[in-house]
Amino acid sequence: MRFTDKVAVVTGADSGIGRATAERLLAEGATVFAVDVRHSQPWRDPGAGRLRLLDLDVAAPEAADRLAACLRSEAPRVDVLANVAGILHIAPFLEVTRQDWDRVLAVNLTGLFFLSQAVARIMVDTQTAGRIVNVSSVHAVVSEPNAAPYTATKGGLEAMTRTMASELAPYGITVNCVRPGATKTRMSEPIYTAQVVRSLLGKIPLGKIAPPEWVASAICYLASEDACYTTGACLDVDGGYAMDGSLPGTEYA
User: Fold this and answer.
1) Is residue 252 part of a domain?
2) The domain spanning residue 86 has which CATH number?
3) Helices 212-223 and 16-27 sit at what angle, rounded to 10 degrees?
4) 164-186, pLDDT tens digit by residue?
């Protein structure tokens, strides 16, 4: 119950890592504002009115103002912001259009920036030593062919996390990042064909593809007081994918 009496905002909360994070925070006592462009799956009511569902496209220009207005009217403060919302567009580099590029950046980077800014202002105004946790990807550091806009946003997000951490540290606000590897989510499902799964299992040292709950555990750690002295960090949750330079199937003499 690390989050009893805490208020948390989770974006991308309808499914996948966002859903698992919101459910974990609820289970540990938080009041959760679950944000997504739409809520298509039923929620289990934790009781005590601790769940708020907010339909919001994080890429919309008015999203940050809408979220801030909602929080200022319904919450005494904000303790945690988990930026999980993200989209993936698959196309060869030579075929990516300006529309494709703009949409991925709007969701994964621009919207995240301004939502974080709005929530951080509330934390500062209420003198709350809050926690902001951003969700990157192993593909910020490992190439993913046919996903240039996505990888660009994740690399940018990690750099932005460090700058946010530096600027918000004087207010007692920490900003960290989780870098998931292969994870079973609604976004990854279409590209995780049988062949892709076999290749991943051969590449990942721990030999597993993560359920969203494993990534949510890392997010909640960084959002908790257990990580009070950690800021500007990026935590790999990838089964060893990014660090492994071995050659699968090769024996060294």
Assistant:
1) no
2) 3.40.50.720
3) 50
4) 999 999 999 999 999 999 999 88
- d(Cα 201, Cα 153) in Å, to the nearest integer? 26
150 is catalytic: yes
User: What's the predicted TM-score (pTM) here?
Assistant: 0.94
Query: Is there a domain that residue 192 lies in?
Result: yes
DSSP code of 60?
S
Give the bridge partners for 36, in sequence order. Answer: 55
**What does 35-48 look like in DSSP terms, one character per residue?**
EES---S-----ST
Tell me which residue of 231, 235, 233, 224 sits closest to 25, measured CA to CA.
Answer: 224
pLDDT in tens, 125-160: 999 999 999 999 999 999 999 999 999 999 999 999
> What is the sign, positive or negative, of the torsion defined by CA atoms of 104, 153, 94, 197?
negative
Number of structural domains in the chain: 1
Domain span holding position 30: 7-237
Check 150, 171, 241, 252 and give the catalytic one.
150
Provide the token pair at 17: 């890592």
